[in-house]
């Protein structure tokens, strides 16, 4: 494949990923306004984030089948059309239920074209450029988070939260049209069987766990344990089926690689804390400190900018020195940020919040993209497809669990403290302390289990 064709594939898929990143990041800032406008509490409102993330994670394993069955053009156009329709439904939806439906449609499309982008980078570029190109992709994917919090804050204060979905819809239409006319195929399509039973078992399993954990603070414990038991049973059946099938829906054989296994565990820990923190920071600034959406976005701006700058740098650092020190530095930064955030009160300086948020995103930049490159480097194209499906699916679903669990903890502690508000300082602090525990486990793994030679 010549450089021009590879560049066009990269630009189009990267633009789609940036649009999806904008949709996800902007919603974090908008969530407090949506909860206030639609009169829902944080335990209900978080489904716009955790539900989106869960559906995206469930769709990812199906991507391995879709990539074999359909051409690159067909797959991208179909998936991104679904994302665009979802954005339109969220924009025009009159209630929380329709808004959630729109988010689910967005997630179904995103769950397909995000892993497609990562596989493209690892396939159309030579090994010597993969780290740099993954870094550039990370830079572009985090360019949206740089401007999204501030931009969404301005839009919310000026036009309301629906204007965010209006902007995303327009951007999606532009990217879709360019993709229809300019995207070229890579790889070959072939007839293959879609394992509907495995897909349903994974959907029921992960959804059951998420619903049960998300109902942590419910007074009726039946709605906690029944979904969890159903989820565990479905996932056990799913795992057994993958082991027995000659062509499994999700190839769990990739876990024979020690490197890949540790990469998945680290990514899951990182995503759980990262997604939960991204949801809870705006709630704290807007509902506890009573600041505007614009101020909430400005608090996050320095950290988002640092992350965007560091992404290509960490890619080059990985190409030269490997993964171990990046993991140690990144895990330490996330741990320090979480511990500092666990000390928030009702008068914490906005500068302190901004600095802690920036430290957190510096840590994320050290780990998020390099660990993906490290996990798959040296694998065959077929192995990369399976590895991408497993890694992207599990870390994404872990992010959904992180949002659901820590938001449930926030709501539970807030209720127990006697507060009738969406969130309390005590709930915020306990949630961040839980994230600190995840970061500590991640740091210990980085020190003990990861060899310097890797």
From TrEMBL:
Pfam families: MFS_1. PROSITE patterns: MFS. The keyword Membrane applies. Its main location: membrane. It is found in: Cell membrane. Keywords: Cell membrane, Membrane, Signal, Transmembrane, Transmembrane helix, Transport. It is a multi-pass membrane protein. It comes from the Bacteria. One of its GO terms (cellular component) is plasma membrane. Residues 1-20 form the signal peptide. Residues 9-454 form the Major facilitator superfamily (MFS) profile domain. PANTHER family: MAJOR FACILITATOR SUPERFAMILY (MFS) PROFILE DOMAIN-CONTAINING PROTEIN (PTHR42718:SF24), MAJOR FACILITATOR SUPERFAMILY MULTIDRUG TRANSPORTER MFSC (PTHR42718). This is MFS family major facilitator transporter, multidrug cation symporter.
